[in-house]
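User: Assemble these into one structure.

Assistant: Restating your components, then the assembled model:
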Amino acid sequence: MKVLRDLLRDYRFTASFIILCILLAYSSLSFFSPIDPTVWVAIARDQPPSSQHLLGTDSRGIDIFWSGAFAIRNSLIVALVAGVVSRFITIPVAMLAGYKGGMTDRVLMFISDSFLVIPLFLIIVLLAVLIRENLSLVTLGLLLACFGWAWDARVIRSEILSLRERGFTQTAILSGSGTMQLALKEYMPFVTPLVFATLINVMAWAIGLEITLAILGLIKLDIPTLGTMIFWALSYQAILLGRWYWLLTPVILSVLLFIALYWLSVSSSEYLDPRSRIQRVGQSLRA
Amino acid sequence: MLFIRRYLIPRLIQYVLVIFVGITAVFFIPRLLPTDPVARTIAELRSRGSYLDPASIDAMVADLTEMYGLEGSSFDQYIAFWQRLFRGDFGVSFFQFPTPVIQLIKAALPWTLGLLLVTTAIAWTAGILLGGVAGYFNRQGWSRALDVLAMVVRPMPYYVFAFILLLLFGYIFPLFPVAGGASIGRQPSFSWPYISDVLRHAFLPAMSLIILGVTAWFQTMKLVVQNLNAADFVQYARFGGIKERRIVSRYVIRNGMLPQITALALLIGQIFSGALITEIVFTYPGLGTLLYNAIMTGDYNLIMGITVFSIVAITTAILVIDLLYPLFDPRIRYN
């Protein structure tokens, strides 16, 4: 509770927390949705916002309010799969590189550097072109997970490097704990906050890339996501025809989501890094 | 000599290795997937309603297999792939049929290069200066205001931000052209009307890249400088009565700038991807739009060509930045 109270002193945390709660509540409405957002022309098309259709309907005869709810849910699924699965690459790579050092470190960091350096967007596009029919939410998440680990592995590795030099590492080794045990029991608690902060960043990155790929028509277009909503609005010329509510709904939702995720990540990692925390909240916190 | 042995040669080896690994990955990943590009192309032709008799399908399969370089074992294909790359041969485009891919890339490259170099230079310099000053005077109101502004803009992905600018200045306040690199039918020349036309067309894509870039550099630079404020040499300069303006420009920014050069090298790949995405939003006639057309027409050779070309270009750019780094940092001496 105290942690939450301290965090809430940061306007960015408060704002992102509220926005995320609202977006999550909105997206969980999709579980009770009266409509199926993949069925076309079940209701009248091109209706402006009204009491019956809060945000109107699109040119495919799908209610925009409800497809927005599904879109957030599906985009978050992609983001979560990409984020969580990429942790399974990031953490072992970072731990191995940081703890073993030497040749292992150099090889692993060379691989992660190559991932950072190469224009990943193009490679993801190349892959997406080849499997576009089969690119469902989970496959997309997995695909992004394969590419979203490199930067975080670097960040976590440098944390491990400093942990390795601390006294408790020697104590643990001398009392006979193996590498696995050392990594999981001794280092994991230190690294967990960092893993969480970088996880949010990867989620935001995945949502952004999902939108970009969807607009290029490279994912399954009948699943409502933030990206496919923009895709359909663009392909039916929603701007020129003055159907701003159709296009603005996914755009505003995604902007809110990006800001909320970014602020959550920045404020929580600043909180976790004591140096900047002192700068921010003043000396009172240390007492 | 020590410079060459300690620094240059390992760096060059790394350079060659990254290109090698990247291109090898680009070659093998499609072959690991359960899709057959030849079958796909034929299926796509059929789905567009053209009737094909079995004999012509067989002929087509043979032609496409040769064109995609799918003859022989994977290893033979791999060798042939490198041989073609060294000759600068990326095959022919399907979307503009007999035109070689390399020619399309060459035509699009000046647009991308111009946009990318100018915007990156402006964004980096402006971000460093602004971040440096704002970081040094971080208790002032305007510095905090800039910080909040950056916090709002920073999380936007390239596509969404460019799109918002497109909506704002293309449709709501139609001040700038929203598509193309120059007005249709205008002959390229070194005259003011043509150059101003090009600049007007470049304005929105450039703006979206610059604004996103400035906020990113601003934020990292501000953070670095805030930590420098407590450094001994800054305190010393302050106690010594050196003017604040001089401290900022000569000591703080100079020092804080160095990690940003390394960061530029690390981020140039992402910046490049961002430029491609921005071009797609504004149909700017560079590599991004070429890529978009290639995706829309399923032009596999062209996508492959753009990818391979970009890997080489980006790694080379990073190598150049890395090799230039010692020029900016007087502490690094190799002999």
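Chain B has a mean pLDDT of 84.
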